[in-house]
Amino acid sequence: MTAAVLPTPAWHGGWRDGFSYGGLGLPLAFVALPLYVVLPSHYATVYGIPLALLGAVLLGARLLDAAIDPLIGRWADRLFSHSPPRAWGALAAAAVLLALGFRALFFPVVEGTTALLAWCAAGLAVTYLGFSVVSVIHQTWGARLGGDEAQRAHIVAWREGLALAGVLVASVLPSLAGLNAVTLAFAALLLAATLLLRRAPLPAAVRQASCAPSPTLPWATPAFRRLLAIYLCNGIASAVPATLVLFFIRDRLQAPSFEPLFLVSYFAAGALAIPLWVRVVARQGLARTWLIAMGLAVATFGWASQLGTGDVAEFTAVCIASGVALGADLTLPSALLTGVIQRAGHAQRAEGAYTGWWNFASKLNLALAAGLALPALQAFGYAPGGRDEAALSALTTAYCLLPCALKLIAAALLYFTWIRNEDTHP
């Protein structure tokens, strides 16, 4: 195989580089909060869709969406091997699709349970396709910038820090201005960030003599398989409370008027914690820093299980502490992934393939959280707005204790399969 590396502007680490590359994280996260947190509650409470049926639609749509990510990843590698500008063009086209699908999803023009479920499924398919193409190309772009642990952490920190800024806006805008303003603001932010990405540092354009690598290539890398197992377990632990948080606030705490406070506290803490985690990485390394964050999350959700009606101040503290842990979850795993790619000798060649499977795992987490947690809660007698104590106990178990158990498993995997053999890992 022959390859020619074309000279491109390098990553210098300043705010201009960080903002031009990471800026797209803001609208992508802006749309993610309504999609993954607001949408289930919206269709259940506004349109009266039963939780079991809604969970099935969300599970099916998210599984289908996740399944195409490895193929999108291989396509992204082809685009980058030709030229980063071509990759940007594909991203821009997908951004238009994303904006249109998102708008339609929250404003159905049909009535009746069956028609609404069909509209939701179709809207999710269009929105997820656009979202997947944009996010895979964006993440592949960042992974191809490479660097040592510190640089990789900084690149991801810019993307995820601005993503949390987008989530902050999305957490308050629906209650302040309504979903109409949310969809219009998202379209404007997406346009601005897509144009800004054209000014970002470019990955090296490596022209390969052969075709793009197979999308199954990452599975031949043992370190990737181990890291993905940790990421999956930890990701499900985070996805379950993200799916159930509004139900917990409204029915367990009975504090719906404080939703903006809780969400802002959570995401603001995450954004502010990212620079602190990056500094810890310089001392402890990526893996050990992630382990510390997992321990913080377990302690936080264990405490949350003791809360009940009216515990607003206590739950605000829970949101802040879990938000701090979130900052590490968003930043460190992707930086570890880039290291895996480098050590495997696949840098500037297969980042898209790795990113495609990585996004598959992320979406699988969210699909399982919605597709399993919501029907299970209904089976235990919980329904939105209910006050039955047994059903509320089931909600508390699902929201607080199940994530703790999964986080502990993820921490054990991280320690025994990764940290104890750190010399063999990036």
Would you kindly provide a written description of the structure presented here, covering whatever features stand out?
Helices cover 78% and strands 2% of the residues. The chain has 426 residues and is mostly helical. It has a single domain (12-201, 222-424), classed as MFS general substrate transporter like domains (Growth Hormone, Chain: A). It has a two-stranded antiparallel sheet with strand order 1-2. α7 (222-252) packs parallel to α11 (351-379), α7 (222-252) packs antiparallel against α12 (389-417) and α9 (286-304) packs antiparallel against α10 (312-343). It starts with a strand and ends in a 9-residue tail after the last helix.
Beta-strand portion reads under 5%
Question: Main sheet, how many strands, which sense, barrel?
Answer: 2 strands, antiparallel
The number of strands is 2
Helix content range of the residues, please?
over 70%
Oligomer: single chain
